[in-house]
Write a structure and sequence with these properties.
Rossmann fold; threonine synthase activity (chains A, B); homodimer; 6-stranded mixed beta sheet; 14 strands; 3 domains; alpha/beta; about 35% helix; 4-stranded parallel beta sheet; Ser/Thr_Dehydratase (chains A, B)
Chain lengths: ~425, ~425
């Protein structure tokens, strides 16, 4: 097996068209698109009967372990358009000592292992590869940090320009990473949706292509590979519950789409996990809409949380998130920053796994859901850790020893 | 295929004994060891005929993609002793736009994808698993940062104590990571070998077990999986040249051992890569010894380099590094901090790959070796990026936009 077989093998492609997620209106596949005429996300549709005939589980299992193994369910038509930095399958790491309650199996999908250290790589590798296929030269987006870093990396690799707008309190490490990886990055006095407005405003003058969350159709196709991978890793038996830290929600929507596609090609049955959208108490528009029973969500004013990745006051895919959560029998819940900090610390200390705050939020939500009975102890649960904890400012540590003086080793025993 | 099959399947084990790397003296396998009576590293020996009969390439290819797939060539005897955080196979990412000269294939083995973001995970997962098998309760080591982080993570996961001593100028991010992951960590006014002396001094009082580089036999067994993986990923055809950032040198020694073991079990032939030990100009004891033609290396005084991971003034495995380099027809070379910084910047900017400074050092060395003719353009080269660039202080970035005022988008085009 050639380790880069997925990147160089020409493949049959099965994309038939794109479809407005709100009206169902059909759009042509092989040209660039942003939102539909209704201002809603476009979804990529495949000839799933064709995929079913072309792909077997056995064939799949022979391919190298990266997201490009899902060739038939991805939109890239020519291998030459793939812009890769090594998108390896991420591991499922069980919580062991830090697991609460015991009994249930709690698996952390550790997305920090992807290029640029976050799950944003999945979406951006697909968006940039498609942009390359379309001959686009300049991409722009708003970002709380991780998406911008992934965009910068893939755009540079493809020889494209990238421009990223970040909220002004975005951590220095994220801005530096974006800039080092060749993008133009600006701090903006506002939140991520304010940054998004700049991308829209500058579009005509600059000619850049808007790759904001769900405002182009391919990031979701990349993100759906989380669901594809999960199904295969668990032997084609989906978990009982998935806790997903939800900002723009692309991954949650993408996984939900992936499960339907896997069922259509005969790889799984009709069983679905309950999808749980996890947000922060300081920015919980989906939780509010879920509890209010509304189909869409209104903007969350004065959004604040240390979990930057889910500080998204308003999501263009709000109705898709809410539909997936409701159709799955799942729920939405908000957790406090204080509990997030505690959870990150306890999982690092007890299990050696340094989660991102967003990943920590799923731990908190799981613990709360166990307590309030919405999840049972005998259920298999997957928590998404969307980025490595190394991408976030860590609390300082200051213990020192002077080796030129006598050391009381008994105190270190 | 069960995704964690490598972690739960009981395996035949083939370790026969340990052997002093200097005198050849034999040591019993199934008990804890530090250095040999000669004060030199111990090497683990296997019944390779047994492995040859037990393991086929086809069988191997069916197993999940993590370092535990190499069951028969690893020292852990019982699956229950494995302490895992998901040690997935790391990708080989080709340099594309930042490649110099063109022609040759330059593959970066991106070790930053491992748990705790560095290749130190390979060695420590093995050392900690073996310590668990031996019932050891407290581990200690000196570290420039990454090894300590890996030790902390695995020790915490195994429920063991860990104590780490770091040079006082170790970056804050590394100290914080080590502390968060449950270890006791101390800054010490000195370099890594000074820190190592504290581990030795405190041993009797504290009862901790010394897991310093090459001072216990199993880190090298973990590190050798870099060589095993590389061989398999390249279709059992080793590359022409390997550039390895060399501090303690465990990985270089380990890969060289791995290649011999692979040949003994019939997976590869006698072809070997030229092994190139890359050091920094401010700390180049191996380069000096290589050029002086000596069998061992003397301590490098006043060591300094921004590539912390290779700031190792004196290595207990010096003669093993020098032997591997010489036997392979390779060489040792030193690069400047300035060139490292430039290389990290150029690879990030042009190829979207944020290397560690140590990884950047291999890029510099490759470029220099191309120029001086020690490597030809038609040779296939592997560079080791030993950690994610996110674990190192990044240069600050400060461009901002005021969204409340008119923005001249033409300047951003």
């Amino acid at each position: 097996m050639n380790a880069n077989a997925n990147l160089i093998t020409e493949r049959p492609t099965f994309v038939t068209h794109l479809e407005c997620s709100w009206t169902g209106e059909i759009y042509e596949a092989d040209k660039p698109h942003n939102l539909s005429r209704a201002g809603k996300p476009l979804l990529v549709r495949y000839d799933l009967k064709g995929v079913r005939a072309a792909l077997s589980k056995d064939e799949l299992s022979q391919r190298p372990n990266d997201l490009w193994r899902w060739r038939e369910l991805l939109p890239v038509r020519r291998a030459a358009d793939i812009v890769s930095l090594g998108e390896t399958t991420t591991p499922l790491v069980p919580l062991a000592r830090s697991k609460v309650g015991g009994g249930g199996e709690v698996l952390v999908k550790d997305e920090g292992r992807l290029p640029t250290g976050s799950f944003k790589a999945r979406g951006l590798v697909m968006a940039v590869s498609m942009a390359k296929a379309f001959g686009i030269g300049h991409l722009a987006m708003p970002s709380n940090g991780n998406a911008g870093a992934a965009l910068a990396a893939y755009a540079s690799r493809a020889g494209m320009r990238a421009t990223v707008f970040c909220p002004e309190d975005t951590p220095e490490i994220n801005l530096s990473e974006i800039a080092l990886q060749g993008a133009s990055v600006y701090r903006v006095n506002g939140l991520i949706d304010d940054c998004g407005k700049l991308v829209a405003q500058g579009r005509e003058t600059t000619g850049w292509f808007d790759v904001s969350t769900l405002k182009e159709p391919y990031r979701i196709e990349g993100k759906k590979t989380m669901g594809l991978e999960l199904a295969e890793q668990l032997g084609w038996e989906l978990p009982d519950v998935i806790f997903y830290p939800t900002g723009g929600g692309t991954g949650l929507i993408g996984m939900w789409k992936a499960f339907d596609e896997l069922e259509a090609i005969g790889f799984i049955g009709s069983k679905r996990p309950r999808m749980v959208a996890v947000q922060a108490e300081g920015c919980a528009p989906m939780v509010r809409a879920f509890e209010d029973g509304t189909e869409t969500a209104t903007r969350w004013e004065n959004a604040h949380t240390l979990a930057w990745g889910i500080r998204v006051p308003q999501a263009v895919g709000d109705f898709l998130i809410l539909r997936a959560v409701r159709d799955s029998g799942g729920f939405a819940m908000a957790v406090s920053d204080e509990a997030i900090t505690d959870a990150v610390a306890s999982v690092a200390r007890d299990d050696g796994l340094l989660l991102s705050p967003e990943g920590g939020a799923t731990v908190v939500a799981y613990r709360q859901a166990l307590t309030d009975g919405r999840v049972r102890r005998d259920e298999r649960v997957v928590l998404f850790n969307c980025a490595t904890g190394l991408k976030y400012p860590l609390p300082p540590m200051h213990a020192s020893l002077d080796r030129t003086k006598p050391i009381d080793f008994a105190k270190l025993a």
